[in-house]
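Backbone geometry tokens:
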Amino acid sequence: MHGRDVYKQEAAEIVRSNYWVETGAFLIRAPLLILAVLFGGRSVQGILILVLLLLLWNIFTVGLSWFTLRAQRGQEQVRDVYTVLGDHLFNVILTMALRDLVIAAFGVLLVVPGVQKAYSLRLVPYILAERPQTKPLDALRESAELTEGQRGKLFLLDVSFLGWFLLTLVTCGIAGIFWTESYYANTNGLVYAQLRDNYETRTAFTDADYDDDGELDDVEEDDRYEDGAHGPGPEEPDLRYR
């Protein structure tokens, strides 16, 4: 990962460049919170309503994740939020529900393991946004691999948003609708794109240069990046989603 300021600066530029489309997309999810406050409760009916709203929230979260990935190429449209509502909708619902259950289970045991697991599975919505057909366990495993060694940095990234989260709370969610949500989501989308590109580059390097026995192939060190034959060179890949 780069320094958090790099992601935040680019995310802010993305939001400003197409502000009303960004705001309109994240406004779609806002009524779910209002419904949860009005109709959610401790009764059986209230609990069922909360479960339904959580399922809808997860669906829109995956849709908004795809929206932010499209925004990195300047191609975002509000209808992108609904692109996951197709043949793989059930898989999206199942995978996100499994993610929530795993985080909750670890949280019930101890707070710290629950927080760690939440950061481990943080990128599941983005994985589903790109590949909604990904099997639930595969999506969880991939997110854990992408965030390996990066969870402390992800935590510090969240800490840097505390001021915006507080402003959202003080304004009863208004600041969230008109800035914080899109700013935060686009920042995380950029982080995901970077971690994904780094992971794909690392995997491609391993697959290309090692044989089935795990031995390094007879390839000269200086020739590995000649003419781009084995992907990008030592420089970090561009943040932009490809």
About this structure: The chain has one domain: 4-209. Residues 205-212, 218-242 have pLDDT under 50 and may be disordered. The two ends are 17 Å apart (CA to CA).
